Amino acid sequence: AVAGKKRAGEQNPAGGEAWVRATGMSSSTTSGQGDDAPGLVCVVDCVHGMVDALSCVRWNKHQGAVVELSEHGIVVTVEESGCLQAKVYLKTELFAEYDYGAEGRPRFGLSLGLLVDCLNMFTVPGFASPVEIRYPGPDMQLLLRSVGSPDACIHAEIRTRIPDTVAWDYHFEHAGNTPVTFTVKSAILKESIDDLEWPGSSIQIHFHPDPPSVIFKGEGHGDLEIEFSYYANTDLLIAFQCDQELSYR
């Protein structure tokens, strides 16, 4: 018997619609079952880690995302104003089961807010319920289903869309075409950018290969410089690759 039914996100600008059902096990569980085998069927024992990771890149209420599936895992990409891109990598090791049978790498768009909200419906304080994720459904939906209880089951369907644009990787490259990259803890980077953002100010990024360091410099009513040195604290500046001095504003 259907215990509840909910519709959410009807007017979501990011493009998305979600249906949620709570059913007794006597009901048919045809969600995602069809003549064609789905491209992906995976099970995650606890969705808390996935929710935390996706929430980190949910910058606004109507945030859209592009999801890419592969034999290596799931990649969720979000973009902001065509100048900022963030990716969440959900590797196969995260899942208790990961059955990938699609050709190529399917890619689709959805509302990140709806995905996070639906995943949260499978979380209960003090109890971790395994969740099965399938794609595609009969109408190209992303299907979620709880599989941990013998007495009840929660189904969720999220309508997907064709991505407006194909996501790409941003590479900061100089004429030699050698990538310039560095990895720093996100909390420290955010704190540094917040300190440098003054009204009417600009931020410069300087890369120094010897000694390896990244310097952020804010210029406005005053000057402020923040340096990340690789040798001084490898726990802070985790990785660094640059073979000549470079600056970006």
From TrEMBL:
One of its Pfam families is: Rad1
| Source organism superkingdom | Eukaryota
Protein name listed in UniProt: Uncharacterized protein
Please name the GO terms of the biological process aspect recorded for this protein, alphabetically. Answer: DNA damage checkpoint signaling; DNA repair
Q: Which UniProt keywords apply?
A: DNA damage, DNA repair, Nucleus
Q: Name one GO cellular component term.
A: checkpoint clamp complex
- Enumerate the InterPro entries for this protein: Cell_cycle_checkpoint_Rad1, DNA_clamp_sf, Rad1_Rec1_Rad17
Species name: Aegilops tauschii subsp. strangulata
> Low complexity composition bias: which ranges?
23-34
The places in or outside the cell where this protein is found are: Nucleus
